[in-house]
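DEPOSITED CHAIN:
***
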Amino acid sequence: MKHSSFFWFVLPSTVLMLLFIAMPIVSVVTQSFYTAHEQVILEVENCGPFGCTQETSVDQEATAALREAEPLGKFAGFDIYTDRNHLAFGEVAAAWVKSDGLPDFGSSLMNLPFYKALGFTLTYTAIVTPLTIVLGFIVAIAVNAVAKSLRGPTIFFSLLPMIVTPLVGSLILFWMVDARGILGTGLQWLADDPNLSVKASTGLMWIMLMVYGVWHAAPFAFVVFYAGLQTVNTDTLESAMVDGATRWERIRYVVVPHLMPLVTFVALIQLMDNFRVFEPIISFQASAHATSLSYAIFNDLGGETRLLSSAAATSVLTIIGIGILLSPVLVRTWRDFNR
């Protein structure tokens, strides 16, 4: 492709990426270094027959003028990143000194908002991502082995979890795990505990959130792997069968190597999606048991006092976290490309 043709070909996408990706990131990074101005307080002394009293009031005009002069707020540097709601260097150092061991230190970290959200986010991502890939691959292999006359309906039902709106799907599972729901009642029967409640247990709530994450994301992996299975060289498979390879050996030595680029692609998408888990926490009303980085941003932006600087700092840390998680996969992809 000529240079001029290539320029006009990539220009629309480049402009859109600058407008809707690069500029918002720059804006968020800039906002994270500023904090809101404090209100200007006036102290007035009123004297009367019974003595003098001090009264305080907010100078609305002076506060408005200050905010108009400096709309971004007061420059705080990295103070927002190091406060208790984020990296909390001071609190982490104090917890390390006072802790009796790593378990005690980890427990102290989980009492800090950012590390509590980070702990659940990393656990969710580390468990849901590989399970989604494995389950999606198994379903793709199973559907590919079904008779052609039944593949259409089978594919449709396999895609239902992805078709259902995430909020609706998580609400359905939330009602099912209720003490009066079918799953909640079944768990009570299995545990022989009529008072067992998924909603009251942090461990069970984490498990249910991850179960929902795998259930909702597995159809995406299934579609990708099923499409990849249609491109497997049949001559290679037939040669393996002639050589006496079992079904498992054909999958292991022929199918899996052929689908490895797709595994990398699915892993990239799932890492990004799972690291910003949000909808299940809202639908399951699980904020008392599990909070993610995305939920922390939502919490900062909600309510009467919108903590824009705090939300911006958490967003920047989330972007850095996603970059760190994706770096091994991207390095592997780059090496494969060069090879």
